[in-house]
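Can anyone check this?
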Amino acid sequence: MVYNINTEVGKKYDFKSVKNYKDFSNRVDCVSYEEISENIERVRKGEQNIFWNTPIKWFAKSSGTTNAKSKFIPISYESLDDCHYKAGKDMLSLYFNNNEDSQLLAGKCLRLGGSREIYEDNMSYYGDLSAIMIDNLPFWAELSSTPSQKTSLIPEWEEKVMAIIKTTEDGWDCVPELKDEVVYAYEEAADIIYEINNCVRETELPDLIERLRDMCGSIEMTLNSIDEDQEFETVDEEEDD
């Protein structure tokens, strides 16, 4: 809350003088979505520093089961990192702690997301929460996931399914750089990634940073060299007459 003292909401409720939970509960009203919808619309149109102190450009769109109208929930980068992504990391940490020999990440993890759209050309986006999460995942998550981010975010379901089928049938042998260079570079750094994730300090910090720089630089160069617009079509064998 201290980070939002100077936001519009923070000033309205005088967050600066809030010292404990009782102060907060006595001062901050419980409101319905409709009561703050105008402020949310302001944020969607580009205004900032209303609810949160860092820029908000993502909005999770509800299914509209209440009042037959969709709601647009502001999503900050901090909420993604400290809530959604942290929950996933915690889940994986607990799983691997109890299943040390698991091969869960040895292959690809299937992901299916919703879609997102731009709002009034002002770099504000709205869509399914799953699409927002996929669109903001770190680069290394892309390496262990299928289908690609581009395919995962196709808005039309039937088109998305066909794209997944084509990608799955073709595999990625047609883009050898992904396996031969990108995945290889990532796997070569598995030991220091383990150190970081498990708070094990075996490598000196300057050496660790240098190896990560080399890995990231190598991966970035390889990814930049791949033609993202190339099409992958599955060609069916002609049946004998």
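Reply from J.R.: I decoded it. Residues 64 and 183 are 41 Å apart (CA to CA).
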